[in-house]
């Protein structure tokens, strides 16, 4: 899994980053749900359009498409304003050649999954899809382009595009903000195609978040998201209906079949455009200058301990929308049957009233502002559960796309304390090239230059301590995967600090500690990165059962997505080379693009396939389907799982 952050955004979308599909103002259509039959539901949605201030006035060339975009009132912005501006940006072949060379080098020499992605088949729940990223990029290099936008869009597609399997869906309306009463209507077609096949194609061409079609569906469709500001779950439209890249056309057409109507309903929903930042421009040239070519941003020095421990959320995360709130923030408790005991910035502890021996630990992210403070929240929450005589704990991981590996390893150990110091560590390796070895040598001698210092990694062949020489990088081995040979380090591990004794002492007193039968996981597959790592430990190593909800009825669904890698941004890598006084083999990109790529891959214990591609480890023990009730209320879903788990 790689994340390419805002390549297309800055080449094209950055000023008007969020496009949302909705009806013409003032009424706004919202949210549609897919279902294979009356019992199966997943959800997708559309969203509202706030009024926004217009661009600051500037002299504008009216014949220039970007000039028109600049002077158009946000509320009058149409799809064509955006696409016309993007299409008018001329293709610069020298700049494109540089960008492509850099992207190609990253995927040839640095990205850890280039070889694994060449696999032709995969066990369920993954789909069979060969992704030859180097070949795709080389093909782009041979292409003839006239449009800058098309060029960058093709790179994005090559990177996020994964093959897809077969799946069958129909869709339903989850929520209609236009208040036209379309809730629970079945969506028969989208843009004249069977709704199922339309979504399938969309997932295939646009989605790179998971190797599993059904997990991708859950990312695409509407869901409920915990809002840390209000402490309530709110409806999220999903990535099909809220986009940060230009949609396939100016509007979506839906044909609905509603339960109480004989006639079908036809809706034509225009995309609504939300400017997310204001940057002044007057024409295509100043658009490129001010939006695409940004001033260099300061790069953070290596994190303490030298190793990046987080894998950021997916590229598709939508920034907070500008504009007024449509409804006042809710107050008071959201659920009548679940008391909130403790709330942190990453976790919330609910106590089920009519199943008082059950506590629900919602962990909606592993990226709180202060992971250390969150550890105390977790201790407080578990202590509160204990005080209420809770014996069973349900983890709700839906929508947790990861964050701090430390925090995730901490949570694993709070439930299953390590017996051995490396129990919560993943065997890992790193792809090696000569320029990287040079960087590693200097990093070994001088502290704080880069993440590539052997001193920060565990020497697995030598007990539990870190390397005291540079053999990790200096003595690589050749691995051939799917016909492609590369140099790799031997197996090592990130150096995750032990959990402080105050936490372990408390954990030893809890009745559920190290008891798989008292713990369950609830996931919709949108549990990424560090969340996937925690899920792996609990399910594979500690035998905890998981319930995976959504996807397609009767089909498998991954418990988690894009697990098992640590990521780096191109800018960070460049700053490492700079700190070491070595010329980087990579040229900086001309545009304000960030390429984020996996540089360290992890494996399940005793496994030979990297965790990212080890499909067998993604299968849950139990499957659940969304219903109109449980999709709209977490409380209903929690009670369903608790009843099934602890009869
Ligand atoms: C993937 O390929 C294997 C081997 O050809 C096959 O058994 C399996 O059914 C395929 N899976 C899918 C989802 O098509
Ligand atoms: C949660 O975030 C708020 C706002 O950023 C901060 O004031 C508070 O200290 C944080 N709490 C924890 C436990 O990190
Ligand atoms: C927990 O159980 C103990 C022992 O049975 C009992 O005394 C106590 O009242 C219970 N606490 C709550 C909050 O139910
Ligand atoms: C292995 O560990 C011991 C101490 O535990 C240390 O003295 C030795 O240098 C280490 N060897 C390597 C190659 O890191
Ligand atoms: C794992 O859990 C299942 C119940 O889900 C139980 O039947 C099985 O015995 C457990 N296996 C081990 C090795 O504890
Ligand atoms: C890089 O060069 C600067 C300036 O000459 C120097 O201060 C620094 O120590 C050098 N860094 C390394 C790792 O050699
Ligand atoms: C891995 O292999 C070792 C040695 O055979 C064994 O002791 C250990 O239990 C295995 N771990 C897992 C998770 O299979």
From TrEMBL:
Alphabetized SUPFAM superfamilies for the sequence: ClpP/crotonase
KW Signal (keyword) present: yes
Boundaries of every CPAF-like PDZ domain copy: 164-255
Signal peptide: 1-22
InterPro entries noted in UniProt: ClpP/crotonase-like_dom_sf, PDZ_CPAF-rel, S41A_metabolite_peptidase
Xref: Gene3D superfamilies: 2-enoyl-CoA Hydratase, Chain A, domain 1 (3.90.226.10)
Keywords: Signal
The name this protein goes by in its record: CPAF-like PDZ domain-containing protein
